[in-house]
Specification:
The structure holds 2 protein chains of 2 kinds.
Chain A lengths: L2 H8 L14 E3 L6 H10 L4 H15 L23 E3 L14 H9 L4 H8 L2 E6 L2 E5 L2 H6 L3 E4 H7 L1 H7 L10 H9 L4 E5 L9 E6 L10 E6 L4 E9 L7 E3 L2 E6 L4 E9 L11 E11 L5 E8 L4 E4 L2 E4 L5 E10 L4 E10 L5 E10 L4 E10 L7 E10 L5 E10 L5 E10 L2 H9 L4 H12 L1 H4 L4 H15 L5
Chain B lengths: L5 E10 L2 E11 L4 E5 L6 H9 L5 E9 L2 E2 L5 H6 L2 E4 L6 E5 H15 L7 H12 L12 E2 L5 H15 L3 E5 L7 H13 L6 E5 L4 H5 L4 E6 L2 E6 L1 H10 L18
């Protein structure tokens, strides 16, 4: 097999997790209007403040236009053709323990390699599994409760901790923030809530697996993580989705709040259905993720491995408000076939001596288009602020594209901003070198790509790093993993 | 007499529309070291690449028998499994992939396909450290990425180190001396000499006779316009050193040693 052929074969593989689980869905009618927003709120038995907030968002959304500045292309979305809420119907009574979870659902998780019981026993990871729009299984809650950590579905948080939700919801990403975040604010169905009280180091890594199921159901998760003074938490988010013909809109919002000396590490492995080789189907992943380093010497660290979705459009950002606070963004984004990604970060320096690091690795294969877009903004108040940015792109084959769009705004003379960028290509030379040493072409590609991403993988929690490496190999070809 | 390890007959090869090899005949027996010399463009590196299985070159005529079997029918990695190794003229950098990780992957890929047991990380490390001594590589190499940021001399030493680990039956050294200062040349040559064995054949491709002062060949062949135009013992190399490649019919005069790389 010649090297160009090999690259072609390796980059034209089938999505591994394409299957659909047959579970009865409890859905609201298609379309969006105030009644739908009210219906969602009623179905979720929400207090009045939530409904009011949703309605404010909805009314504001009606005045907004869908953004067009991003370097991605997709047909117009018909927002009236989306089912905005769908919850799996328990077959007779809600599950009281994992054993009562719908066996269909359990099998789905098994297929994805996420046996919940095994995870509880072996990995010590608490899983808040979001299946469609409602959390059906939450584990380790008791152990976490002992140290005062709250980790539950967003719906439960609204019921049990309304004062916390009210205080922090929309405090980082306001309901009027942007078209998709505003839509999310109006119709979000569920998500995760996490609260780490003062001085507590969360005793385990918190993990959520998202999965989109019912057909044509837009997914609108909302995650809120609050770390009080001196606390710390590591949060893992990972997902796969079943194969679909029709594009599915996903517009999630994640808000992080870190108070004085608090640390939040948020890691994502995203592997939603990317569409077929011709770009049909696949998830539109339009996500707003933002963290506020509100307290002094606080730290927020985003690490993402984005291999899925037809379109990825997200900029996990940090607002560095507290003096001496630290923001980090480590990213691997892979686009294959017709996938498009426009991703990066925003680091907004407000406090004194704030520091940020951006490390972005983009891989383009097939006809994939990969854009890094990042803003580093140093406000006048941010004396002594520093930023270091490194953007590397790797191209496989000659039909893909890599684009780097850094925006730098500096309003303080004592600050320091550095930007480095590189673009390279997996060459026939590299492949032949590996093959001459006895390594097969597909193992060679996998090795070269993983090497390229090593700096980012080192930032991931151990188990995730292994998973991410496998995912990257799988995303590039079908036969290795 | 047993058949030679490598037998090349009437080998023709081209890149795109240009014919580069125009009928090479060569036999190399186990335990022998053959030097292939010749001016730029005579086809030395092409011969090395064709033997290693580079797809850029199309073989249009002739045959290559290795251990009596058709070498050209094998993929590059199958040739590696069969014991063919090429030390690259320009070793490739692979950022983020550890030097030893790369080499262990290669060794285990080969061992696996030979039906041998794979080496675990600890056993491999011990083995690699011992082999590193052959080319005076210090242990800082272990933590570095494949050839990344290596000096020219370090890259060439790394090639010989890889050869020492993979233990080939046929080693093709493609201008291993290019870009080396005299100290590095000595280290590389001594590594190569320590790997000479009755089981192993080597083809040493070089532009200069200088290397052959250190790696003394059994036979010397001179390539001109894609054919072997002269063969002899090592005195031929000395003769070339004195007269340059001008003595090769049809070639413009090129003074040996006068070329700037």
């Amino acid at each position: 097999m010649s090297a160009p052929e090999t690259l072609h074969d390796l980059t034209s593989r089938q999505y591994k997790y394409g299957f659909v689980t047959d579970i009865e869905a409890d859905a609201v009618p298609r379309g969006l209007n105030e009644d739908i927003v009210r219906l969602i709120s009623v179905k979720k038995k929400e207090p009045a403040f939530m409904l009011e907030w949703r309605l404010r968002a909805f009314r504001h959304w009606l005045t907004m236009k869908e953004p067009r500045w991003q370097n991605v292309h997709y047909p117009p979305i018909d927002y009236q053709d989306i089912v905005y809420y769908s919850a799996p119907k328990p077959k007779g009574g809600g599950p009281k323990s994992l054993d009562e979870v719908d066996p269909e659902l359990r099998r789905t998780f098994d297929k994805l390699g996420i046996p919940l019981l095994e995870q509880q026993r072996l990995a010590g990871v608490a899983v808040d599994a979001v299946f469609d729009s409602v959390s059906v299984a939450t584990t380790f809650k008791e152990k976490l409760a002992k140290v005062g950590v709250i980790f539950c579905s967003f719906s439960e948080a609204v019921q049990n901790h309304p004062e916390l939700v009210r205080k922090y919801l929309g405090s980082v990403v306001p309901y009027s923030d942007n078209f998709f975040a505003t839509l999310n604010s109006a119709v979000f169905s569920d998500g995760s809530f996490c609260f780490i009280p003062k001085g507590v180091r969360c005793p385990m890594e918190l993990s959520t697996y998202f999965r989109i199921n019912a057909e044509n159901t837009g997914q609108f998760e909302r995650t809120l993580i609050v770390a009080e003074e001196g606390s710390s938490v590591s949060y893992l988010e990972g997902c796969t989705a079943p194969m679909r013909d029709k594009n599915q809109l996903h517009a999630a919002v994640v808000e992080l709040v870190a108070l004085d000396n608090a640390q939040i590490k948020y890691s994502t492995v995203q592997n939603w259905y990317p569409g077929d080789a011709e770009g049909r189907g696949g998830i539109f992943n339009f996500v707003t993720k933002r963290g506020a380093c509100r307290g002094k010497a606080s730290k927020i660290s985003w690490t993402q491995v984005e291999t899925g979705s037809a379109i990825t459009w997200k900029y996990p950002s940090v607002i560095l408000q507290g003096d001496d606070s630290v923001g980090e963004f480590h990213s691997v984004a892979l686009t294959n076939n017709r996938q498009q990604a426009d991703t990066g970060t925003k680091m907004i320096h407000i406090g004194k001596n704030t520091r940020s690091t951006i490390l972005s690795k983009g891989i383009s294969a097939g006809r994939g288009q990969n854009t890094y877009r990042g803003l580093v903004k140093i406000q006048k108040s941010a004396a002594g602020a520093r930023n270091y940015t490194q953007c590397d792109s790797l191209l496989l084959g000659s039909r893909c594209g890599a684009h780097t769009m850094p925006y730098i705004e500096v309003k303080n003379r004592s600050s320091k901003v550095e930007h480095e960028a590189s673009t390279s290509k997996i060459g026939e030379d590299q492949l032949f070198y590996c093959m001459q040493r006895g390594i097969s072409a597909e193992d060679a590609v996998s090795m070269i790509v993983n090497g390229f991403c090593r700096q980012v993988f080192q930032k991931l929690p151990m188990e995730f790093a292994v998973e991410a490496q496998k995912l990257l190999s799988v995303s590039l070809e079908g036969s290795i993993a | 007499m047993t058949a030679p390890l490598l037998r090349i007959r009437n080998l023709h090869a081209r890149v795109a529309d240009r014919e580069i090899l125009r009928g090479i005949d060569l036999e190399v027996g186990a335990g022998e070291v053959h030097a292939i010399m010749g001016p730029n463009g005579s086809g030395k590196s092409t011969l090395a690449q064709v033997l290693a299985g580079r797809e850029t070159y199309q073989v249009t005529e002739g045959e290559v028998l290795y251990q009596g079997k058709d070498l050209l029918a094998l993929s590059p990695e199958e040739r590696a499994v069969a014991g063919v190794f090429m030390a690259f003229q320009y070793p490739v950098e692979i950022p983020g992939v550890g030097n030893l990780y790369f080499l262990r992957t290669a060794l285990n890929a080969i061992r696996k396909r030979r039906g041998e047991e794979e080496l675990d990380a600890m056993d491999f490390l011990a083995f690699a450290k011992e082999r590193m001594k052959l080319v005076a590589m210090d242990e800082s190499f272990i933590g570095r990425s494949v050839n990344e940021g290596f000096s020219g001399g370090e890259k060439k030493r790394n090639e010989i180190f890889q050869m020492a680990v993979l233990d080939p039956l046929l080693a093709i050294l493609d201008e291993t001396d290019s870009g080396l200062d005299i100290d590095a040349l000595r280290i590389v040559a001594s590594g190569v000499n320590s790997l000479r064995s009755p089981d192993r054949a080597m083809i040493v491709i070089t532009h200069y006779q200088r290397l052959l002062d250190y790696i003394v060949p059994d036979r010397v062949h001179v390539l001109g316009s894609g054919r072997i135009v002269r063969s002899g013992d090592r005195r031929l190399a000395v003769e070339l050193e004195e007269n340059g490649y001008a003595l090769i019919e049809g070639e413009p005069p090129v003074r040996s040693g006068g070329e700037v790389r």
